[in-house]
Design brief:
It contains 23 helices and 11 strands. Helix 7 packs across helix 8. Strands 1, 2, 5, 6, 7, 8, 9, 10 and 11 form a 9-stranded parallel beta sheet that branches. It has a two-stranded antiparallel sheet with strand order 3-4. The mean pLDDT is 91. The chain is an alpha/beta fold. The longest helix has 19 residues. It folds into 3 domains: 341 residues, TIM Barrel; 57 residues, no CATH class; 69 residues. 48% of the residues lie in helices and 10% in strands. The structure holds iron/sulfur cluster. The site of iron/sulfur cluster has 9 residues, from loops.
C-alpha cells in the first residue's frame, strides 16, 4: 500500500467516538480561558491550601491549577518551588532515572510545520533502520551503561506497528558482555514514542513487552493544532491523537506518557490541557499518566517556525511550568531531556523532574557510527542543548546527592497501571525504588563508571545503605535480608536482581 492510501486507512472513527462525552472531547477552550481569567491575583492562603493538597499527593482541580499558574508574587513562587521539591522527595525520593532515546526512522507521512522530518522537507535524508542496524545501535547504547530506552518512530507504513513490534523484540534480544566481564548487560525496558494507533495494533506492542507508550499532543488548542498540522494528513486529526493513550489503555497498555511541545501555544494553556488529559484518563480508566513531558521547541533544520514561533517559552516560564506540573499531577514522573541546555536541565531536575536522558544521539544510526550531532544535522529532528555523557551526568548528580537509578523492575513485577498509581500516591513505590536504585547503581559503578564517577558514587552509595538500614519501613516489611543478599551477590558479579 502506498503512503497516501495507508494514511487514509489509519484512523478508525469509532475508536475516537467511544471516548467522547456528548460528542465533545475533554478540551474546552472557553472553559480553560475562563478558569485562567477567574483565578487572577491569587490569595496567599488559597495558594498554601492548594500546596497542602499537593503534599497529600492528590491531583489538583483545573481551578486550583489555574490559580497556581497565575502566581506572580516572588515569595509565593519560592514556596511553590520548595513544595514541588518536597512532593518529589515524598514520591520519588532522591532518585533520577536515565534512559537513552533511539531514533529508528525518520520517514513520515505528516507535515507538521515545526518539524524537520515533515514529508515535504526534501533536504532530509530518509532511513529506516534494518533489524541488523537496530542490533548495532542497541549494542552501542548498552555499552554506555544504559538499561532503559525510548524507541522513537516516524509515522509511515515502513515503520508501522509490525515494524515497531519487531524492533522492540530485537532490542530486547541484544545482550552484551559488561566491560569487566561480570555477566551481560541488556536493555531491560523499551518505552515507545510513536504515532497514535488503532487498538488492534497497540495490542501487538503489548504482546512484545512494550514499557511505556508515549504520545505527545503537541498543542492542546484545537485551532492552533489545525494551523500546524494540515487537515489532509493523519496528524491533522486532533481527536485521533487526543485519544491515543485511551486506546492504549483499552489495548492493555496501562503505562502511558503524555506531553505537549511547549512553544507552539501559550504555556499556561498547555499545562491546563495536560491536566485535563490526566483527569480524563483517571475518569475513564482510574489510571493517570506515568510520566509527563514538556519538551520545549528547539531549532530544527529546515523549520522556520521552530525559531520564530510567537509562543517560545523563556527559561523562567519553563521553571514555573515544571513547578506547577509537579504540584498539579504529583504522582506522575516528569521528564526533562537533553533538548535543554545542561545548566537549566540540572535546575529542573532539582525542581521536580524524575527522568532524563544522557549520551543521547538523535541521528538515525548515530550511536553505532559514533556520530556527533554536527556530523549529521540533516538526519536529526532538532538540535540538542546538553551533550554530556551518561558517566558525566551520573557523577554530576551524585555530587548533588542524587542517585541514578537504572531500575526497570516495576513493570516486570507487575507494578504498573492502577497498582503503581496506588503505590506512588501512598509513597510506597518510592521505597521499593530506593532498594532497586541502589542495586542498579552498584551494577553501574562496577561495570561502567569512570574512576572519578566511581569515587563520588561510592560515597553516595554508602550514605544510601546507611539510610536503608535505618528506615523502619524496610525492617517492618522484612525486606532487609533479601536486599543485603542481592547487594552482595551483585558486588560479586551477578546481574539483574531486583525487589
Ligand atoms: S512531528 Fe512527528 S509526525 Fe510531525 S512531521 Fe515530525 S516526525 Fe512527522
Amino acid at each position: 500500500m502506498n503512503a497516501k492510501d495507508w494514511a487514509a486507512a489509519v484512523i478508525k472513527q469509532d475508536e475516537i467516538d467511544k471516548y467522547l462525552v456528548g460528542g465533545k472531547d475533554f478540551i474546552d477552550e472557553g472553559k480553560i480561558y475562563e478558569e485562567l481569567e477567574k483565578q487572577k491575583n491569587p490569595d496567599k492562603q488559597q495558594v498554601r491550601d492548594i500546596l497542602q493538597k499537593s503534599l497529600d499527593i492528590k491531583i489538583l482541580t483545573p481551578a486550583e491549577t489555574a490559580l497556581l499558574l497565575n502566581v506572580e508574587d516572588p515569595e509565593l513562587l519560592q514556596e511553590m518551588r520548595e513544595t514541588a521539591l518536597q512532593v518529589k522527595r515524598k514520591v520519588y525520593d532522591n532518585r533520577i532515572v536515565f534512559f537513552a532515546p533511539l531514533y529508528l526512522s525518520n520517514v513520515c507521512v505528516n507535515s507538521c510545520k515545526y518539524c524537520g522530518f515533515r514529508a515535504e522537507n526534501k533536504e532530509e535524508k530518509r532511513h529506516v533502520l534494518s533489524m541488523d542496524e537496530v542490533r548495532a545501535e542497541t549494542a552501542a547504547v548498552i555499552d554506555e551503561g544504559h538499561k532503559r530506552m525510548i524507541a522513537v518512530y516516524g509515522e509511515h507504513p515502513l515503520s508501522g506497528a509490525d515494524y515497531i513490534a519487531d524492533s522492540i523484540s530485537t532490542i530486547y534480544s541484544v545482550k552484551r558482555t559488561t566491560p569487566t566481564g561480570n555477566g551481560f548487560n541488556n536493555i531491560r525496558r523499551v518505552n515507545v514514542n510513536a504515532a497514535p494507533m488503532e487498538i488492534a495494533d497497540l495490542k501487538k506492542l503489548w504482546r512484545v513487552g512494550i514499557g511505556t507508550y508515549q504520545v505527545f499532543q503537541e498543542t492542546y488548542n484545537h485551532e492552533r493544532y489545525a494551523e500546524l498540522h494540515p487537515a489532509n494528513t493523519v496528524k491533522g486529526n486532533y481527536r485521533w491523537r487526543l485519544y491515543a493513550l485511551h486506546r492504549a489503555m483499552d489495548a492493555g497498555i496501562d503505562d502511558v506518557a503524555m506531553g505537549a511541545l511547549f512553544g507552539l501555544y501559550d504555556w499556561k494553556f498547555e499545562v491546563m490541557g495536560l491536566l485535563y488529559h490526566a483527569l480524563d484518563l483517571e475518569r475513564q480508566f482510574g489510571i493517570g499518566p506515568h510520566t509527563v513531558s514538556f519538551p520545549r521547541m528547539q531549532p530544527a533544520p529546515g523549520s522556520f517556525l521552530s525559531e520564530h514561533s510567537p509562543y517560545l517559552v523563556s527559561d523562567e516560564a519553563t521553571r514555573r511550568l515544571v513547578t506547577v506540573l509537579r504540584l498539579a499531577i504529583p504522582y506522575s514522573g516528569l521528564i526533562v531531556t537533553c533538548r535543554e541546555e545542561a545548566g537549566l536541565k540540572r535546575e529542573l531536575i532539582h525542581l521536580g523532574c524524575t527522568q532524563t536522558d544522557a549520551s543521547s544521539k538523535l541521528g538515525i544510526g548515530a550511536y553505532s557510527q559514533k556520530l556527533k550531532q554536527e556530523d549529521n544535522p540533516d538526519k536529526v529532528q532538532f538540535m540538542l542543548g546538553d551533550q554530556h555523557s551518561l558517566d558525566e551526568e551520573v557523577k554530576l548528580l551524585a555530587e548533588d546527592g542524587m542517585i541514578t537509578s537504572f531500575c526497570t523492575a516495576g513493570y516486570r513485577c507487575g507494578r504498573t497501571g492502577d497498582k503503581i498509581m496506588n503505590l506512588l500516591e501512598k509513597g510506597v513505590e518510592g521505597k521499593f525504588c530506593k532498594l532497586n536504585a541502589v542495586l542498579t547503581f552498584r551494577e553501574y559503578l562496577n561495570d561502567y563508571a569512570s574512576p572519578e564517577t566511581r569515587a563520588v558514587g561510592e560515597k553516595l552509595i554508602e550514605q544510601e545503605l546507611r539510610e536503608i538500614e535505618n528506615t523502619p519501613f524496610f525492617t517492618d516489611k522484612k525486606l532487609l535480608p533479601t536486599f543485603r543478599s542481592y547487594y552482595e551477590r551483585i558486588a560479586r558479579g551477578e546481574r539483574d536482581l531486583y525487589m
